[in-house]
Design goal:
The chain is of the alpha+beta class. Helices cover 25% and strands 24% of the residues. The protein has 2 domains: 2-109, RNA polymerase II/Efflux pump adaptor protein, barrel-sandwich hybrid domain (OB fold (Dihydrolipoamide Acetyltransferase, E2P), Beta Barrel), CATH 2.40.50; 230-432, Chloramphenicol Acetyltransferase (2-Layer Sandwich). Strands 10, 13, 16, 17, 18, 19 and 20 form a 7-stranded mixed beta sheet that branches. α6 (262-276) crosses α7 (322-337). The structure holds oxidized coenzyme A.
Length: 433
Amino acid sequence: MADLSTKLRTEVVQVTVPDIGNFKDVSVIEVLVKVGDKINAEDNLVTLETDKAAMEVPSPYAGVVTEIKLNVGDKVSQGAVILLLESGDAASLPQELVAPHAVVVAAQTVPPVIAAQPAAVPQTVADVQQVVSGGKAHASPAIRRFARELGVDLAQLKGNGKKGRVTKDDVQNFVKAALAQPRGAAGGLQVSAMPQIDFAQFGAIETKPLSRIKKISGANLHRNWVSIPHVTQFDEADITDMEAFRKQLGEEYAPQGIKITPLAFLLRAVMEALQHFPDFNASLDASGENLILKKYIHIGVAVDTPDGLVVPVLRDVDKKGIVQLAKELGEISARARDRKLAAADMQGGGFTISSLGGIGGTSFTPIINAPEVAILGVSRSCMKQVYRDGKFVPRLMLPLSLSYDHRVIDGASAARFTVYLAQMLADIRRLAL
Ligand code: CAO
């Protein structure tokens, strides 16, 4: 006869989405189990994906799946019920959770690695297409990321792993097969491999892993650099008067803790330029044959953080004054440096400003933050002798570097844009119009 003290008790447990950081309304891209499946603790139940990271949610307990409560495509947040599990060993549950009815258990907390979202990794049409088609394949987040980095569409692969899941070998074999195709047939970029060099042969070395933000943003910067025909237009704006006014405003608002930097004026001036040249606040559609013009003005600002570059977005810039923009800029860059940005803070930008003015330099060639079509680089202002009305006068000049997607924007439009922007900055009364 079975010893009652060791006899298994069964209990229906509701497994819910655990703490997933600041993410809300995250997409369910895979349901990895089905009703009747016998699962072990730690087995993955579903895959959730934000716009930039995927995460598998493991089960806290072993048991048999009795009901699945969500579907692929659903949007979920912490606490949403994933499934009901008949736990074969309720004795292993914390006692307060064992009740005659279903009890609620949050699935294992998802590793924090997914919580940090890089901002300089905008979602592109290509990303969306890959996620959509790749969404049909079964693959872990790491494999999805690996495939995405290599530009492999998972839907084209046959998975040879457990339950038909796509493995790293599958992705690698697919890439090898693609590389073995006759060169140039696909019209893709053909580059020779980087040489593998053992640097230790030349002296002492140390290997330092790239931060997660750098790894992801690096892949996207690389993609944007090679896939968008960039041209950079340089110009200078006379900000002598603007700077005098900025200093005056700065003194007025310092007691309130608001720092008025040149960037707040730039946001306002760029907003005016975007209203005047709507093609700069646009994205190509998936076919590459239409331009999607954005009627809202949300501007991303590149922020340098110890972990790498992130691009929080200031929303509805057209509805805000310079002081309000300065305040929001201070707040959002502080949140970026404290790693407190949510994914939503970094989405929806139509144009980006990258300012290195606080550091130095005379000009640079910023990489477009796709799917945007232009980005403004700003370098440090300096006093210059400007020839005006027959004589040289000292003026404070601000260097502007506008990189643009030449498929969408012509050189003449880019030059008009920077000239217009420089006029706005030179005569700040225009910003008030
Ligand atoms: N010329 C001269 N001085 C400038 C300037 C410019 N263009 N821009 C800013 N400054 C001054 C500010 O007035 C401030 O001076 P004080 O401390 O004397 O008041 C100082 O430089 C520092 O400014 P800041 O950097 O704190 O503020 P900001 O609003 O100019 O910039 C932010 C904020 C978040 C954009 C910036 O801190 C940052 O992270 N920049 C780096 C962005 C980056 O890495 N871009 C490269 C991306 S690669 O494409």
